[in-house]
Amino acid sequence: MKTSTNFKTTIAGLMILFFSQGAYSQTIINGSFTYGGIMRTYRLYIPAMYNPATAVPLVFNLHGYGSNNTQQEVYGDFRPIADTAGFIIAHPNGTVDGNGNRFWNTFDNSSVDDLGFLSALIDTISAGYNIDSNRIYSTGMSNGGFMSHDLACFLSPRITAIASVTGSMMWSRLATCNPQHPMPVMQIHGTADATVPYNGNAFFVHIDTLVKYWVNFNNCLPNPQIIQIPDIAPNDGCTAEQHIFGEGDQESSVELFKVLGGGHSWPGAPFNINITNMDFSASVEIWRFFRQFSLDNLTSIQTEQPDQPSFMIYPNPSRGLIHLKFDNDLPKTIVITNSLGQQVGQYTCTAAGFEVFLPAKGSYQIFVLSENRHTWVNKLIIY
């Protein structure tokens, strides 16, 4: 997932060209705040058509390992699409590892709470702009694609749909994946990707296996409709197929763009690295996919139950000791997971109140399972 020197040089040149020409007169916001003891930075692209009176979608566009937010803004470019579709684009930065490379914590080798940071970033953006909370999406290149899958698994109450370009998941992450609603997913991947192999390895999930996971989770049709993408750029060294798995729960779907002979690259990018497919635009297809889905439609599968163990958490944020208050004393199971989706506690409760101490700082999710297996979830911050 590391970005090559040539890639960085080319990106820098393109950025100078684009900005010196004044290609985009819309508002660019550079922001920062401290989260988890780390100063986190981000860029926002606000299209000229934005009207504070109208709630708009939010799209996270996450950079790859060794890259950064300004490079991803140019390489996986959604700005012309946002100008006409009216959504806000967030380009956050990952943190810097010991080798000086920016990364997202998706590889089980860091304690950085990126899930908590991105959730806090949603709150920060929503405080300043009129964001439609039913239409928050995430995409990204490579490590950013990994992070988008993590968001789908572990921050699903806030994420409507995701798309991964050249990213996958760690086997360990997939084993703990716990989405709370049908999750529309698009995967774009080259069969000749030498960085994140299509066929997977000891650490990374095989792309067909990852797609099958989401197809099964969403109860989509197991056999896809396969569309051959017209080979309009015969000199790009690769071709592409679109696999559509439809008719999932709550009208969810899964799509795979399988780039035959394609490398570790963003189809339709402004320049060619690692065999880039130019027969379609990843950015255009991702927004075409995202705009179909709204979180309220995907979560309407849950219905109110007379014995629903709805609950509140206080204080939240907390310094460690938390109290849960329920509206009934029926038997229920309480499961607590950390930002990595790892279970840190499981308890049985038959009272209207419960308390527990969590010593480690970070973000958590509290799941309450009733006897009829309905599940309710709240988010918790320990600081």
Name a few traits of the molecule.
383 residues, alpha/beta, ten-stranded mixed sheet, four-stranded antiparallel sheet, 9 helices, 31% strand, globular, disordered N terminus
Strand content: 25-35%
Structural class: alpha/beta
Shape from CA axes? globular
Biggest pleated-sheet summary:
10 strands, mixed
Give start-end ranges of low-pLDDT stretches: 2-24, 301-308
- Which bin fits the share of residues in helices? 10-25%
Overall average pLDDT = 88
Number of strands: 19
One letter per element, helices H and strands E, the order comes to: HEEEHHEEEHEHEHEHEEEHHEEEEEEE
Whole-Å distance between the termini? 31 Å
**Alpha-carbon Rg, integer:** 21 Å
Q: Spatial order of the strands in the main sheet?
A: 1-2-4-3-7-8-9-12-11-10
Describe this structure in words.
It is a single chain. With 383 residues, the protein is α/β, with parallel strands linked by helices. It contains nine helices and 19 strands. It has helices spanning 5-20, 69-75, 79-85, 114-128, 143-154, 171-175, 207-218, 282-290, 295-299; strands spanning 27-35, 38-46, 56-62, 88-92, 95-96, 102-103, 131-141, 161-165, 185-190, 225-228, 239-245, 254-260, 311-314, 321-326, 332-338, 343-349, 353-357, 362-370, 375-382. It has a ten-stranded mixed sheet, sandwiched between helices. A four-stranded antiparallel sheet has the order 16-15-18-19, with no helix packed on it. The protein has a three-stranded antiparallel sheet with strand order 13-14-17, with no helix packed on it. α1 (5-20) packs across α2. It starts with a helix and ends with a strand.
